[in-house]
Amino acid sequence: MKHWRIEDVAWDRFAAERTDRAIVPLVKAAALVERNGTDYAVYLHNVFRDDPDFGGAVDTWAAEEVQHGDTLGRWAMLADPSWDYAAAFAQFRQGYHIPLDAETSVRGSRTGELIARCMVETGTSSYYTALAEAAAEPVLQEICRLIAADEFRHFKLFYDHMRRWLARERIGLPRRLRIAAGRIGESEDDELAYAWHCANEPAGLPYQRARCVADYRGGAMSFYRFHHIERGMGMVFKAVGLPPRGRLSDVSARLAWWFVRHRQRRFARSTGAVPAVAA
Ligand SMILES: [Fe+2]
Ligand SMILES: [Fe+2]
After folding, report:
1. Ligand 2 centre from 126 Cα, in Å?
2. Which of 187, 182, 272, 177 minimizes the C-alpha distance to 221?
3. 120 C-alpha to ligand 2 centroid (Å)
4. Percent of the chain having pLDDT more than 70?
5. I need a surface site. Which of 1, 32, 41, 84 has the fewest CB within 10 A?
6. Which ligand gives the minimal distance to the CA of 128?
7. How far apart are CA 84 and CA 151, in angstroms?
8. From the CA of 21, how far away is ligand 1's center (Å)?
9. SS3 of 260, please?
10. How many angstroms does the Cα of residue 203 sit away from the middle of ligand 2?
11. What is residue 212's predicted lDDT score, i.e. its pLDDT?
12. What's the gap in Å between 63 CA and the centre of ligand 1?
């Protein structure tokens, strides 16, 4: 059962004048990626076809992801009444596919698949937490908090099943680290870039991955603060089986934060904006 419904959101509190225009395109792109959750459910059912425990959980998870998409899509249409969520999603579906006929995980093992899912949920939970804290518009704040809470629960779901599969498959730490790092690297892949294109670029402008990655990434990065990165790093460490709090996790979080700050400054320079965090 889902933890909340779209009707539970206080839509009548929407305040157009409090909407940050820089957030709207990010919400539109996120709506399309989230809405695509049912495809991942098909893929996960294939990969875990002999694991009915997990199969049951996947359907609830996918329904929640689709609801994230529909909720963000509805908000984006309030913020920009000229935007057509259904049409943008149809365009996205036409051009972006995941391998639905895969019989085994593209990560090489079931444990690897679940570690990769933990990385995605780490990313989404941090992202919606950052958006909720940055948003001045009350409905968006509420939506992002609800979604972030779901994403933290999704992390726990995949983590618990991963521990069960790890006991069977016994994958070593170096391989777990490689899988986690690989999935984090893919955050800049075609899925987000193409969603950005379908959600925000004018019809007729050909898709160009590098341009869309730069625009999407630049906008998204600007909302992160150190505590988001620190918490996310703890989750990454936990998922690969390292202590989530400690010296190594601290140093890694500081390095990641340095990288995020570097990106934030570069994006601010390219747009002529003032960096959101001064130091
Ligand atoms: Fe989601
Ligand atoms: Fe999720």
Report:
1. 11
2. 187
3. 7
4. 96
5. 1
6. 1
7. 26
8. 22
9. helix
10. 30
11. 94
12. 10
